[in-house]
Amino acid sequence: xxxxxxxxxxxPSQGGATTILALQQDxxxxxxxxxxxxxxxxxxxxxxxxxxxTGFGNAADxxxxxSDIFASSVRLxxxxxxxxxxxxxxxxxxxTLPAPVQLTVESGMSGTLNSGTLIASYQAxxxxxxxxxxxxxxxxxxxxxxxxxxxxxxxxxGVFNGSTFDTGSATGTFNRTxxxxxxxxxxxxxxxxxxxxxxLASHENVVAAPESSSLFLLGFGLVGVGFIGRxxxxxxxxxxxQ
Length: 242
Description:
15 strands; 8-stranded antiparallel β-sheet; single chain
């Protein structure tokens, strides 16, 4: 397995505030391919198993109105002749905002299939214990993931319209511990045919849960998520080229 950045053969210790990018092929070992301080922007480009990734990265916001974790793989290629599955994890600690205890989490993923065939799914998590994703995560099993047992919007499956796919938007309520930080974790699962290539972008957004009279305004406000994602995708492309 060839990587173009420093590698740890398991998720890092939960002891410090951290952001990680991690990869897993066909249910094998989870490999951390980039690590930084909490809420930091990271990027990885290189070869992992049978896949090449260009610009797999993340950007995070921790703001009073909107906190989020945005991740993309600008280009993913299966270099082999056989179909393989890759999981692309992003996990970051120390989100403190928005301040209310009850939060609304919205998540989704979209992308383009350039060649081959693809099954794409996505899952977003939030954890009031501020844990990172744990090394016990196995393909299709998240019960032992320290950051995955508190809240999730559930598995979101990409639906194709021609060569583009979209999971749509999923929304749920996450109850954090008052005054304590929380973590966000996202997981992209791609089964790509031999020689296939795809592009993707995903997001997990956290806002204060609205009062009943504000539900309409929440729906209107989430329309802006796509614009935020496109801005950050451009920033990640610039980051990956550095």
